[in-house]
Amino acid sequence: MRALVLLWSLTGVLALLSLCMGPTGFAPGIVAQALDGEATGRLILFELRLPRALLALLVGGTLGLAGATLQGLFRNPLAEPGIIGVSGCAALGAVIAFYSGLSASIPLGLPLGGVLGALLAIALLLALAARDARISTLLLAGVALSALAGALTALALNLSPNPYATVEVVFWLLGSLSDRSMEHVLLALPFMVVGSALMLFCGRGLEALTLGEDTATSLGVSIRRLRSLAVIGAALAVGAGVAVTGAIGFVGLIVPHLLRPLVGHRPAPLLWLSIPGGAALTLAADIAVRLIGGAVELRLGVATALIGAPFFLWLVLRLSRRAA
Amino acid sequence: MAGRRGALLLPTLVLLASFLAPPSAQAQTAKPQRIVSLNLCTDQLLLELVGRERIASVSFLATDPEFSAVVDQAAGIPPNRGLAEEIVGFDPDLVLAHRFASRQSVEALKRLGYAVVEIDLPQDLAAVRDQIATVAAAVGEPARGRALADRIEARLAALPQPAGKRPTAAIYEPSGYAFGANSLADAILRAAGFDNLAAELGIGGYARLGLETLLASPPDMLVVDDTAADRRSMAQQFLDHPALRRRFPDGSRIAVPRRLWICGGSAVAEAATLLSRARLERESRRR
Question: What ipTM did this prediction achieve?
Fold first, then answer.
């Protein structure tokens, strides 16, 4: 409980700090101007910096939660939306919806495309895990799925009559929060709320699942119901998030691992803790991106990968040493 | 073994071909009759300077309405994508290229002995005149070139300049890029009686101008091309950001099609005329 309060406070502080960040570093003057009621200050604070901080909080929180949920569901410590290809497929779904014009003609078409891509990926991986539950099999399938989704994303963009295709592939594969608007927040928010609620319902089932499927069933947990809740929940949250920010990797891997010792390795409280954990990490990374500067802003996905990839490598080494 | 022989065969053939058929030999004296242009900017100049019967091929962008100012004139002329092999197929007696595009193909074509004339990215109006002269000389129409440059300069000189303080404008492109100092667009903006905000903010050439930076020191007018709105791209969608719409409603926006300032040619005068007209309208509204 204390950890939860602490993490939410950290998230709050980082969100406020994010609002004080300008394009080239710390610039809190705009916040003061906005509070004075000055028009330019209000425009910059409410239409640029606020949606950015909100999206970092929402996308980070749902990625953390989805990581914790998928790791519990697959009983695999390396299951993470980015690594197992769910984010990549969500990006592909969003890309198809966006560049085909579907998102312009159907309201919510963009997040729906992302959700559909994520749903397909998780369903495929689950079917595979039912036949072969080894950690390495899931990871290898994830590598293949990520590569395929990335290639199809590039192909879809290449085929679209769009002179900026090459640059935009980078957005979808590496994610960014720069220059997003309140429209993007509202587009993703409903899916994220429903998805998160579904995933939070999985707590008890995931606890029982740590004892094995048979024991969980004898405890009165319906594995099938648990699976649908977790899969649909994660697909809704990750799919909608990726559809407005691109794929931001490793948040769902790092956060549950760092927080697991705090809750005695129990999946249910970990779910609740992973939300502020993911939000705080993403907000911090997005602040770092603006502090580093440069002619063109560093992609958020680059920043999270810089922290996440070495962490991933360390995890793999530790797991293989334990197995040996 | 076969692989090594194959590796030797190709350069030998290329070498042989360049000896057997020096394609530029007969192009020295007579006016070139099978001109191929690899680049949109040379397409446009070419179509203004010579009859289409002398043009063998133009770039694929020449018929793209978003970027090309000569869509109608270019219709029906075989397009190319700037690949050396397809250019050779046109058997050109003159190849026009841009210094910043299709580098590999241009080098290959030069090695094969084709007559290649390259133009630069013009950074001001004097460079436009030079560029027109270069292309006009290459195609054997120097007088037409001088006439074209004179026409453009006369149209620009006829534009009125503001009596008092010059208003500021920024040319805002997809993904938030802007034309700063040392760019043709900057010269056009000034010819139309504006000061270029992006240049004042220290931007040179063509570089990113962040949305927050733009909103923090907004220009009097924002020049945005919304003719490409039907093309879905994140880059184009960026220009629909609610903050940008709110700060620059329709009255403070000027729509100038992108195709008018990509290259140096008569489009330059057209862009300046549109801008100048918008500036005068703004002044009459404020009076």
Answer: 0.84
